Known about the structure:
Helix 4 packs parallel to helix 5.
Amino acid sequence: xxxxxxxxxxxxxxxxxxxxxxxxxxxxxxxxxxxxxxxxxxxxxxxxxxxxxxxxxxxxxxxxxxxxxxxxxxxxxxxxxxxxxxxxxxxxxxxxxxxxxxxxxxxxxxxxxxxxxxxxxxxxxxxxxxxxxxxxxxxxxxxxxxxxxxxxxxxxxxxxxxxxxxxxxxxxxxxxxxxxxxxxxxxxxxxxxxxxxxxxxxxxxxxxxxxxxxxxxxxxxxxxxxxxxxxxxxxxxxxxxxxxxxxxxxxxxxxxxxxxxxxxxxxxxxxxxx
Length: 274
């Protein structure tokens, strides 16, 4: 069977993201999303999630902040996790910096704080995943991520392909308990964006979807002044890219193609129930 989760990363990053994410799951082909709890608009997105509990909403565990001018830091507070932040109390911009400086016990403090914050706000998360897959940057981070999933009774997004993407080539993952290993993760590249071929790539993914469990990772947002300010000098996953993702998810052509190809759309609830 060709099973596919179409998943929206980065809800809570901005108001433009929250608006686009809700539209993507209400009107589009998106089946899952996750919320960045350290970001300014996380509270609003949890409010939206609580008002629409039938949609699949996870926690996008965050340990890095890649933007130049839009800076944020740990939910636990910089003083509680000093190895995770720069001199201004913000998360490091890259996974490499995180892997070099972070103390594993402080990674656990911060990830646990993000989960508990979401729960305190009333979110009933369907899963855990990771911004920039930073939990895969070191083996001890990945072990913490998996342990928290078991402790809170939540599926975690596990992918050998994503680990290769973050240059973690440790031994092959063996799922434990209720963990689900995603067979294939699909996302567009900057080269495809430069060629204006993101939608063509997504359509190719759908037409050539391999058997097993697939996830298509997208980042829908409105190309607003807010998003352009957040992503300034960052065309990779920038505001224009994110609006293309938004439009793709809402297009009639995407709906039709998925139906025509007989692809089974999934979310984390259906995986857990299966």
